Amino acid sequence: MSRNLIIGLFACLVLLQIAVPVSMIVQRESILKTGTQFRFKTAPVDPYDAFRGRFVALRVAGGDNIPRPEGLDLKYGQKVYAQIGLDDKGFAKVSQITLQKPQGSAYMTATVNVFSPLTKEVVLHLPIDRYYMEESAAPRAERVYREHSRRGVRQDAYVDVRVKDGEAVIEELYIGGERIEDVLKQAKEKK
Amino acid sequence: MNKKMVQWLYQELPGLVSNGVISEESAHKLREHYGEIKSVGKKWFVIVVCSVLGALLIGLGIISLFAHNWEDLSRPVRTVLSLLPLLAGQGFALWVFLNRPQSDSLKESSATFLSLMVGSAMALITQTYHITGNTADFVLSWMLLIVPLVYFLKATIPAMIYVVGISAWVGFFWDKLLEAFFFWPLLAVIVPHFIWGLKEDKYSLRSALLALVLATGVCFGAGFSLGKWLPSAWIIIYSCLTTIFYFLGTWEFKGISTQWQGPFHVLGGLGVFVMMFLLGFKFPWEFLGERPYFYHYDLTFWQALPDYILTFFLVGISLLMFFQCVKRKDGMCASFGALPLVALTGYALGGYSPDFSMILFNVFLFAVSIIRIRLGIRLNNLGVINSGMLMLAALILARFFGSEMNFVIKGLIFIGVGIGFLATNAMILRRKGGES
Fold first, then answer.
1. Domain tally, chain B
2. If you measure CA to CA, which chain B residue comes closest to A3?
3. A171 CA: distance to closest CA in chain B (Å)
4. Which pairs count as long-range contacts for B351-356, CB under 8 Å and 24+ apart, including other chains?
5. Mean pLDDT throughout B338-358?
6. Residue B221: alpha-carbon gap to chain centroid
7. Domain enclosing residue B2, as ranges
8. What is the mean pLDDT of residues B63-75?
9. In this complex, do B83 and A133 lie within 8 Å of one another by their Cβ atoms?
10. pLDDT tens digit string along A103-130?
11. Residues B26 and B148 in one domain
């Protein structure tokens, strides 16, 4: 094989190695710029599963107890399309599940997490379950998040999400109306 | 011949010449025959480890500097910073590729640095955009993006990272046969590099390390991707795999002077013993008739065909190697190599009588250990004798430890085994002392 051809192939590899992360960036930036914004109220996370190190484990309230459409045969881990609607307070929730891409309404690609034939309700695994933070901040943020996601106490945590063509990107995580990063900064300054 | 042996010979030559054992001319001819020793083994390792560590520390330092102010940086800045180490790694690798193609250490360190930076860039982007990733897809994309570096830069450490990566990847598909089977074509991608390394020097640390990682990866891959169509097929698959490793190690790496040079020999020998020991219990044979829930009833014949083919291929190869061994009248090799044949017999009859298969393996392990002890005594090889003794001791202890036998008898058996060990070693050492 000629040296020029090998150099050409190596250059192709270098371009490919850049193209993969760049395509991830371009896709997400496009969603953030032109996607529809939704605000999801958060739900408590399983305390045994809470320690993650580099991210805050999120669970959004709108992804649970979704009525299973009649005649729809679902399996664990199955890919579905979750149509997004709004509740009476303006928070987003999954309004319907379909196996075909919905036309004309915002939707997220999700997987079936829990499905009980008895209750006829479905719990979805939505692709918005991680909020990455710097390593030292993530465990502190998770503690704050859990305090503000507990039912019956101060349930004032929510996430802003941009949705486009089935893909979703988290914009910010808010606690009591403030960005989680600012909440942590203020707590640090108080100390 | 192994470099260490040649090195020893060269050290001995002046003494042999001065004592008149061989002539100067013969010494010269020997030097000519074996040629110059290129001591790249340890040097390669030290230089590569230092270069790779240096490159990694620089990379980690850069990332730590960013991480310190990470929360305060805007998203576009974070994105650019995530890509910078990747671009630096690519620049370094390109420079080495164009300007220093002869330097093994630079090629290894730049390829390793770049391999890790590809993963780091993807992970940082994932974190910047809070992407809930599919870990299996992430690992596979990363591995596919770095594997060409193995060939462009003839670098072995990225090859090891790749094998570890695809072995981790296949673990995500332990219950999905069709996806898991892709492990084998993915593994095959690295084989030409492994063969190239063996051709360069099969006793080098580079070849030994890759062989060790490859063999371990194959064991992982086989566990996750094979035998989904037959209950307890692992008995057959691992019996064949460990035996093939043992044969490869024994036949292809005859000139080893230290055990690390023969990872197939060590892993294979250990694996064969573990299989013999494990199959001497009853529990592996009790589940032959039962199908765990993840066995695929719904697989069609054509879907399961690759699994069938690879499993039969493993059985065929291991049996062929065993018969070669018998033909050569190599008792030591044949005793270990009989494992697949005994496992097949046990598997065929274990469904009817688990006790039969269990007893068969106890007899087999007993016979193998006696053969090793006898051969060791005949060859005056303490290592072989002790391995046989250890196998026998393991068999005796395992069989009697769990039994309802009286404590006094148990104690006496253990003391007897201990005395046997000491006496045999003393006898062989005395014989060796007498010879010298």
1. 2
2. B98
3. 8
4. B351/B288, B351/B289, B354/B282, B354/B285, B354/B286, B354/B288, B355/B282
5. 89
6. 12
7. 1-37
8. 70
9. no
10. 888 999 988 887 666 667 788 888 888 8
11. no
| pLDDT at site A169 | 92
pLDDT by residue for chain A (191 residues), tens digit each?
688 888 899 999 999 999 999 999 999 999 999 999 999 988 766 544 443 457 788 888 777 778 777 777 777 778 889 999 888 888 898 888 888 888 888 999 988 887 666 667 788 888 888 888 877 777 778 777 777 776 666 667 889 999 998 899 999 888 888 888 888 888 777 76
Which of B70, B122, B131 is closest, CB to CB, to A134? B70
Q: Mean pLDDT across the stretch B96-108?
A: 86
Pairing of strands A178-179, A66-67: unpaired
Nearest to A131 among B118, B126, B130 (CB): B130
Q: Are B97 and B169 in the same domain?
A: yes
Q: Which two tokens stand for residue B254?
A: 């005859």
Other CB atoms within 10 A of residue B187 CB: 20
- Supply φ then ψ for residue B140, to 5 degrees: -65, -45
Please give the helix or strand (H or E) that residue A39 lies within, else none. Answer: strand A36-41
Considering only CA atoms, which of A156, A132, A142, A150 is closest in space to residue A184? A142
Residue B164 inside a domain? The answer is yes
Question: Based on the domain organization, do B1 and B92 belong to the same domain?
Answer: no
Rg, C-alpha atoms of chain A? 20
> Is residue B259's pLDDT more than 60?
no
Task: State whether B13 and B117 are in the same domain.
Answer: no
* Contact across the interface for A170 and B130, Cβ inside 8 Å: yes
Assess whether B162 and B98 both reside in one domain: yes
- Chain A to chain B Cβ contacts (< 8 Å): 73
Q: How far is A130 from chain B (nearest CA, A)?
A: 6
Residue B340 lies in a domain: no
ipTM of this predicted structure: 0.83
Same domain, residue pair B33 and B60? no
Q: Do B71 and A18 touch (CB under 8 A)?
A: no
| Token pair in block for residue B328 | 């050569």
Alpha-carbon distance of B230 to B226, in angstroms, equals 9
* CA–CA separation, B192 and B207 (whole Å): 12
> Hey, which residues 243-302 in chain B have their CB within 8 Å of chain A?
none
- Please, which residues bridge with residue A116 across strands? A121
Sorted by sequence, the CB contacts under 8 Å of residue B159 that are 6+ apart come out as B147, B150, B190, B193, B194, B210
Please tell me the distance from the alpha carbon of residue A163 to that of residue A147, in angstroms, as a whole number. Answer: 27
Amino acid at A102: P
Q: 0.90 exceeded by the pTM?
A: no
